[in-house]
Amino acid sequence: MRNRRTAFVAIAGAASVSLALSACGESREVSSDKGGVVGVAMPTKASERWITDGNNVVKDLREKGYGTTLVYGDDKPDQQVSQIKNLITQHVDALIVAAIDNRSLGTVLKRAAAAGIPVISYDRLILGTANVDYYASFDNDQVGRLQARYIIDKLGLEDGKGPFTVELFAGSKDDNNTKYFFSGAMELLEPYLESRQLVVRSGQTDLDEVTTLRWDGATARKRMAGILAKSYGSGTVDAVLSPYDGISMGVLAALKADGYGSGAKPLPVITGQDAELASVKSIIAGEQSQTVYKDLSQLALVASTMVDEVLNGRQPNVNDKATYDNGAKVVPAYLLQPTNVDKTNYRSVLVASGYYSETELK
Predict the structure, then answer these.
(1) Are the C-beta atoms of 274 and 244 separated by less than 8 Å?
(2) What is the pLDDT of residue 291?
(3) DSSP states of 163-209
(4) Staple partner for 164: which of 88, 148, 238, 283, CB 3.0–4.6 Å?
(5) Which residue, among 267, 292, 300, 302, has the nearest Cα to 349 in the 3D structure?
(6) Is the pTM of this model over 0.90?
């Protein structure tokens, strides 16, 4: 792969390219036609979406003629760092990395740069290092806006209805996407909070107060249960801004344990993200209200194509060169668009596209 790494260095001089491949599981399979191997580092198998990502990335790379080594970090930053070190020691030709802690990878990515290994930041932007060259993700502000817009529409806020109660949840503090999801949502919700059409009874409205470490559903359930016990003894929650389906399911479990879901105490509007199977079934059953679908097959294709372009001396296609400043550089990005999904359109979006079959959703 010396020729490809030489090509990468040439591009890096002009476009500062560096790739980090995200891995899912641990396997190594080298194709014979190109002979290059890409390391893919994924954060966890605890979420169905990361398993899907890992499988999609590996599939696309193999179709392009590359071998792959896929690893999962089990939501442990130190483990992911160790896995990436091992990939570098194995002389992979490129890396795709979905970070667990986006500030923990600076030192190990220096090793990658010294070895001439390009790095693609996958879905979660790696922070604090110049040794990440491209970023493949979705329009994360738009994810939050879709969630907020759903709450606004369902409660009739633009028609002057209210006041309503709402509680706010955000993702993990160590994931750079968290601030984009939250700021995108709050951009639309803040006018209604200021006018008191929306009221957060818990008083927890700052990002630092509403984050959920590792996006963990059990953590979200515990926090929601505490909010209900402390702030809603004589009232009900009308809406919950949740950034991710796993968090949504935790919130939903706390609500149902508190008696929500009956005719006298209906469930609030509950948003989500990633169209995970359990949440889509919940939406069909009339429990969770909404999710944001992100076509993970397209994201995997963008990342694998970036790798192929870089390793063959070409500059990858990007559509954002200004937004994603990781503290050391502005990382060129390609952003895909997310889609709102609820009970009214899940068939046309998820079933018609083949993402799920009707049988899977029963």
Answers:
(1) yes
(2) 98
(3) -EEEEE----TT-THHHHHHHHHHHHHHHHHHTTSEE-TT---SHHH
(4) 238
(5) 292
(6) no
